[in-house]
Amino acid sequence: MSRSSSHGEAKKMPALPRPSSRPPASDSPTSNATAVDMPVRSATSLTIPDSVILVSPQNEILLLHRVKTSTSFASAHVFPGGNLSEQDGPCPPPENLSRHEDGPHYRRAALRELFEESGILLAKDRKSGKMLAVDEATREQGRKLIHQGKATFDEWLAQQHPDAEPDTEKLTPFTRWITPSANAKRYTTQMYIYFMPLPVNVDESLLKELPQEGEREEIQVPSSDGGIEVTEAQFLPAKEWLRRAQNGEIILFPPQFLLLYLVSGFLDQHPRTGLSVEEMEHRRNKLIRFIHSGSPAWTDKCISPKMTKVAADGRTVLALHDPGYELKGSKRQGESDYVVLVRFMKGSAREVTVALKKDILKDERSNL
């Protein structure tokens, strides 16, 4: 990776992008369709991407930002991720509800796409369990070979070490998102969180390959049309990403904002700096326990955002309890306690906040 040293509101709800970073070339966030405008689209129209919330050894979060020539969500900051490929393994057919569940195909795709997009390799020796360290030049060559279809991720890993494999076991599911049924572009996106080893446990050669806090790293990512997209990769505390979004410095769509909000509540408690490794691990463990808690647990929540009302300040209130059209009648559920408030403007999302549903209802009653 080459490093850089620099550091009229829409009245209808636009299509929410999937919470990852590489949409199809034809994707666009500018649809203004609502549930009453368009018929329900079949399950076969759902693209099946996944995405990774990558937590660094310093408990910072990686976001990618398309710059310069990119046209797909060009100004949004997103988690790394992308669409499944045949090399990731078989995926259940559209009519099978397990298509919307965690599985080895999603996990393999998540780590492959992370590598293709950012050059960050999360692989291990299957015998020793030790993380695999590969020099930058070799990783850059591997990214190109895999993207060009000249090698699969597994084939390239085997060339680096005979016992190398993607570190899929350390991926923890952290919600699934299904685009509302009225939108023209729809996704069923599996989200994961991955904790890189803490500084005392990580190989020095792995640590020095990561951008330091606040350092922007420019990455050349091959695009679907054979060109090159320039992407900035940056690790920052979750609360700093949220602050920048709330100040209008960056764009975060509701899925990214909500998940960063939840992560920040555990990893960014005061004080944020000067922590012992034991305290950093303690915060991680609390977050992991939270992700596995709830009814359903956050590992199993399936969320299809639904516009429920317009707040007094004109922002859209998105309910998160609906699991999506494809899962109606199943046991899958979304999130019932939180809502997201957002101002959609020309296909963009601004003034995003997370609130408890009970507080929004209380405010509504007080204004009656």
TrEMBL record:
<dbReference type="GO" id="GO:0005739">
    <property type="term" value="C:mitochondrion"/>
</dbReference>
<dbReference type="InterPro" id="IPR015797">
    <property type="entry name" value="NUDIX_hydrolase-like_dom_sf"/>
</dbReference>
<feature type="compositionally biased region" description="Basic and acidic residues">
    <location>
        <begin position="1"/>
        <end position="12"/>
    </location>
</feature>
<dbReference type="InterPro" id="IPR000086">
    <property type="entry name" value="NUDIX_hydrolase_dom"/>
</dbReference>
<protein>
    <recommendedName>
        <fullName>Nudix hydrolase domain-containing protein</fullName>
    </recommendedName>
</protein>
<dbReference type="GO" id="GO:0016818">
    <property type="term" value="F:hydrolase activity, acting on acid anhydrides, in phosphorus-containing anhydrides"/>
</dbReference>
<keyword id="KW-0460">Magnesium</keyword>
<keyword id="KW-0464">Manganese</keyword>
<dbReference type="InterPro" id="IPR039121">
    <property type="entry name" value="NUDT19"/>
</dbReference>
<keyword id="KW-0479">Metal-binding</keyword>
<keyword id="KW-0378">Hydrolase</keyword>
<feature type="domain" description="Nudix hydrolase">
    <location>
        <begin position="45"/>
        <end position="258"/>
    </location>
</feature>
<feature type="region of interest" description="Disordered">
    <location>
        <begin position="1"/>
        <end position="37"/>
    </location>
</feature>
<dbReference type="GO" id="GO:0046872">
    <property type="term" value="F:metal ion binding"/>
</dbReference>
<feature type="region of interest" description="Disordered">
    <location>
        <begin position="81"/>
        <end position="101"/>
    </location>
</feature>
